[in-house]
Design brief:
2 strands; two-stranded antiparallel sheet; about 300 residues; disordered N terminus; 2 domains
Length: about 300
């Protein structure tokens, strides 16, 4: 019987198969005790997340502290506040930006006046506008420093500063806001009719009448009343055929002025409204001028109380 031939093992057969690691080994890695100096993967993730949360909290806290230190409003000393107010006052009175103390005492008869009161002769509208814009800026700088004082301020001085700001805001509006002239309203009335004239006046003074500034609101109401009275006068002229050839006849309106009792009544109320507007303006102007001395005196007292 011939000898049985043994076939050589193929390469695949010759390789010893590698058995996969028992499942138990993976389990042991996952839950290996830290007694051997090794950390389970799950714990490593949790600790990393915890560190990130702590780091983020530190960054946020540090940022908050930095913002508080660098962004908090600066406080000002009485000397700095007085310097700012003197700069405003001198610019109001002389047009000069100087923080020197005011000289003399306030007396109405001294006739102190604004450097560029209203539309002073020789000054253009642009110059006057620039002057009042700078006034508001300088007083705003003082007010900001005053409200950031590094010491307590008395309530009566707080009230004086607030009232002064109200007066300045009104006077600024009074000087730089145009009003409806009798001529412009007359043209609107006779060209487009009474309804158009009424609407024109109402829209013109709408913002002033809705102002939160009590003086500005009163001013707007008085100006609107003036427009209404003029329109009533125009009605009388129209009813008495004074509008001829596209214009008011001067002879006719003169006759109405002296003989028409309704026209006379309206004209009387027009004069009263104009006088009230002038009184309102004069009162604000005097308060602004006298306030330079009264507030300055109070601020000096603030310095003295701090020294004590």
């Amino acid at each position: 019987m011939p000898a049985r031939q043994t076939q050589p093992l193929t390469t695949v057969q010759a390789q010893t198969p590698t058995s996969p690691a028992p499942a138990q080994s993976q389990t042991e890695v996952d839950y290996l005790s830290t007694d051997y100096g090794r950390i389970a993967p799950q714990k490593r993730k949790k600790n990393k997340l915890k560190k990130l949360i702590i780091l983020a909290a530190i960054v946020i806290l540090g940022g908050g502290i930095a913002a508080f230190v660098f962004l908090r409003p600066k406080s000002y000393t009485p000397a700095e506040i007085i310097s700012a107010f003197n700069t405003y006052s001198n610019y109001l009175l002389s047009g000069e930006k100087s923080d020197r103390p005011l000289e003399g005492e306030w007396e109405p008869l001294n006739e102190f006046t604004f450097y560029q009161l209203d539309l002073v002769r020789g000054n253009s509208q642009e110059d006057v506008t620039a002057y009042y814009n700078e006034l508001k800026t300088l007083f705003g700088d003082f007010a900001q420093k005053y409200h950031s004082a590094d010491t307590d301020t008395p309530e009566d001085l707080d009230g004086m500063v607030e009232n002064y700001q109200t007066n300045l805001d009104f006077y600024y509006t009074y000087v730089l806001t145009e009003s409806v002239s009798e001529e412009a309203l007359s043209e609107k009335y006779f060209a487009e009719g009474v309804s158009s004239a009424v609407t024109y006046a109402e829209q013109f003074y709408k913002d002033l009448k809705n102002s939160e500034n009590e003086y500005t609101k009163q001013y707007g109401e008085l100006q609107a009343e003036l427009s209404t009275l003029w329109i009533n006068v125009f009605n009388e002229y129209q009813n008495n055929d004074c509008f001829r050839d596209g214009a008011l006849d001067e002879d006719c309106t003169t006759v109405q002025y002296f003989t028409n009792t309704q026209v006379q009544s309206y004209n009387k109320r027009i004069r009263e409204a104009k006088d009230t507007i002038e009184d309102l303006q004069d009162s604000a102007r005097v308060d602004l001028l006298s306030g330079c001395w009264s507030i300055s005196e109070k601020l000096t007292g603030l310095t003295e109380s701090q020294d004590e």
